[in-house]
Amino acid sequence: MPYVTPSTHIAGETFPAADWNVVVNDIIALSPFFSAWTAYTPTLTNVTTGNGTLTGKYLQVGDIVWFTVQFVLGTTSAVSGDVTITLPTSRADARGGMYSGGINCAGTNYNPFIFPNAADVTTLTIRAQNSSGTYGTATSFSATIPNTWAATNDFYVNGAYEAA
Question: Average pLDDT of 12-22?
Fold first, then answer.
């Protein structure tokens, strides 16, 4: 529904029904943005959850899905290899979406590479950045990449994409 510039009115003027309809339609159109987010439990690969804490939530408005996932390591958690995260719903486009995230490992913050998987529209892959060369490259996590993982370290991903 296209945006309609609201009419202006003065005190004592009768508010036309057409203007009320615009207000009501705008409220209906915007109401999903004020809804509570829905919790979901993502699946992680190459992560031993152990006693760590995994949280995920999302909000879908029309075809757009906003989501956030965080994993906080516990004393029995481990990370190794390419970490994949399942999304709350499938993506409409194999390469679509906007994603950001962060890694806090051994007290240092890192920016991860986050890849939509073209062969699987239900997951994202997270890798560490290796900046030792001329250009930054994606490197798989290990017990010591990007640093030595320990309890209370975490990584998170959030983003938005078009649902299938």
Answer: 74
Distance from C-alpha of 116 to C-alpha of 129, rounded to nearest angstrom: 16
Domain positions in the chain: 1-34, 38-162
Q: CA 73, CA 53: separation in Å to the nearest integer?
A: 7
Of the candidate CATH numbers 2.60.90, 3.40.50, 2.30.30, 1.10.238, the domain formed by 38-162 belongs to 2.60.90
Least confident of 13-27, 42-56, 92-106, 123-137: 13-27
Phi, psi values for residue 19, rounded to 5°: -70, -40
Name residue 88's amino acid: P
Q: If residue 138 lies in a helix (H) or strand (E), which one and from where to where?
A: strand 137-139
